[in-house]
Amino acid sequence: MGEIAKLFWIDGAQAVRLPEGWRLDGEAVQARREGAAIVLEPVPGTETWDWLQARVQPFDPDVEAALAEDVPQQGRSPSDLPE
Question: What is the DSSP letter of 64?
Fold first, then answer.
């Protein structure tokens, strides 16, 4: 279980005071819901891409093989194209 973060109101908006060690760099975050959880993530483009790498799962070996496969380009005649 994590640490407790305090909720408070400022100028009519609810805010979260993150405990020391949980603070984020920057001035904005993306917020999204996952069930009952609220997830805060750095805004893409303002930091490094580390946030994305933490979310991306490794490819299945079959997917990696398909991506590496050299598939020859198919020849098409103009009559095959829709009008």
Answer: H
